[in-house]
């Protein structure tokens, strides 16, 4: 489902009116995201280069007559949640409501009284593909509470509040990238985020002849969660041997000089992270110069490193990358790589906008032939971050 913000506002207004019998007072939205390059660098204090995508969670709301409660209607799944806000907000059912509950609790912790609200929400961010539907939900909720209470948070504090909600209420120890880009995303810009200093730079990508293609493999291999914890431990082991606080502060020369004290696995994990941080910096510079061929080469190098050194790819992701590599620049593809934690989820490709339809068709057919699975494919330009549509 692809709708622009105006279409989403119209749709959610209809759902709100049908559910609550009146028009909404406020409408807000927050985007999902895709990471163009910089994978598994975030928890190593490195750099990432995500962008907000043109897929959003949107909420319509008004003050409720039901005192002390926030009532939420999920229009996509026709599900309801009721959250008591007259006391400290706690975890509850349905499970998806905990993303909202965590944000409400974060505002309470900052001394804010949450008003009674009626909310209708809907999402066009694909679930389970690594495009940060959870961060979009958290940031959308935070944007609504800002609008309803008149208390505007510092953007970084807002992103950190949303991250804390995911840690405490959803039990997911995520990094800062997802929430930061959902808050701070800017139309026609990527966000170069330093995960150590939390400093951000908006990297312009104005060229309308270039687009980003997102290919959801529609697979997720079960070993992902345990492997993620193992990778973190392996990176920590490398920092101990090299003698740095995190791999962000290690150089390729330091890695080579300590290689003899490392297992081959630890060495390869560190080589990926150190190389990926460098590739991310180079890619940001390449985008600013419009060097799409160079950026594409960095994306392929990133995938190869994630596949062989970090070992977090899977056959389905590798198939997508190889199909794109086979199309090449003559077929409209500059570069392609897996994005997200790995073991399934999405691949991201930098493509010529004029070739999107042809590439989509080619990838869909060849991927299904190789795997028997239907891929979900859509293109996006860099989208704006959290937005107040009506308020």
Largest sheet: 8 strands, mixed
* CATH-defined architecture of the largest domain: 2-Layer Sandwich
Tally of distinct domains: 2
| Contiguous runs where pLDDT drops below 50 for at least 5 residues | none
| Mean pLDDT level | 96
Strand content: 15-25%
State the helical fraction: 40-55%
Gyration radius over CA: 21 Å
Name of the level-1 CATH class of the largest domain:
Alpha Beta
Written account of the structure:
The chain is α+β, with helices and mostly antiparallel strands. The protein has 2 domains: 5-204 and 384-390, 2-Layer Sandwich (Ribosomal Protein S5, domain 2); 210-380, 2-Layer Sandwich (Alpha-Beta Plaits). The chain is 42% helix and 24% strand. It contains 11 helices and 12 strands. The protein has helices at 5-20, 97-109, 133-149, 155-169, 177-184, 224-242, 252-257, 264-289, 292-308, 315-327, 356-371; strands at 26-37, 47-63, 69-74, 79-84, 117-123, 189-194, 200-204, 210-220, 333-339, 344-352, 376-380, 387-390. The strands form 2 sheets. Strands 1, 2, 3, 4, 5, 6, 7 and 12 form an 8-stranded mixed sheet that branches. It has a 4-stranded antiparallel sheet with strand order 9-10-8-11. Strand 3 (69-74) and strand 4 (79-84) form a beta hairpin. Helix 2 crosses helix 3 (133-149), helix 6 crosses helix 8 (264-289) and helix 8 (264-289) packs antiparallel against helix 9.
